[in-house]
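From the pipeline queue, job 12 of 40. The input is one protein chain; the requested action is below.

Action: predict structure.
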Amino acid sequence: MSLVLCLFSACAPSRAITAETRLFTDSAGREVIIPSQIDAIAPSGSYAQIILMTLCPENLVGLSGPFTKIQKEYIDETYWNLPILGRLYGSSGTINLEELIKSAPDIIIDMGEAKAGIAADLDAVQEQTGIPIIFIEATLETMAEAYETLGEILGMEEEITEMSQYIKAVLSFAEETRSNIPESSRPRVLFSQGEYGNEVNGTGSVHAEILDVVGVINAADLDGTISSGGDEVSMEQIMLWNPEIIILAPDSNYKEIWSDPSWAAIAALKSGEVYEVPIGPYNWLNRPPSVQRVLGILWLGNLIYPEYYDFDMIEKTQEFYSIFFDYDISEDEVRELLKNSTFR
């Protein structure tokens, strides 16, 4: 039978639960029959891929997209050449259905923030491919529970314990610490992105969430709907906000901002409080808003509130990379990652 016919008929899964299957209710409220033993997984997109790479890379049958040069520095080359399956659904969907079916996953796992219509989207993909697909919510707030759910369905409860406990400990520490920081002591921080540093994310944007968690004042006081990406603003607006600290994304204008006269009058430039977000293997604050943000909380807190986040950032980074990437990162490598922030 051709792959095209398989998509619509013979590959449809049985609706009966057998000794080899179980019923799972996912985060979208869908009841899905999944294998009791899961050995082969297809990620739905980059977010799921990142989380699954930290837990069970050996079970991935393909990737949503190729690894970047930076990511390859921290990821075993065993996984570099897995088939590229594409992203599963949505406006940016690029899924290769034939490649997906040929890779023969036991299950497709979708992770991240629930979007409108997600249940119907996933049902459609499941019907089309004949492969069970589940959604596991994995926001910053639910990240630990997402790992626990993965551990339960993959039979890896022991393996996820340290990861889950680590995430909970960092979030709990950040919440307690934030409650102890007086409002009068909280600086105005602008998180800027883009080639010219004029794409900003205001409070309420998932891309600026770590600023809220750490407990700073987001200088980007935006009215109306928050863009899911970045909101482009004028230099005049940034001057009016006059942030005390500027955090620049890895792909923005960190090198140029120091000599750019249009930025010179801003408080952060006058005091030298301009820093660049570390990246490796993923951005520590956003894009994508992955589990790497847990380390980003410690980094940003230590950078802005060293009296509260009073610890050795080298040791904290080494601990995170060991737990989540099984990577023994050296002190020199950490210093290189933080060369435009903590160790500037």
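Job complete. Residues 1-14 have pLDDT under 50 and may be disordered.
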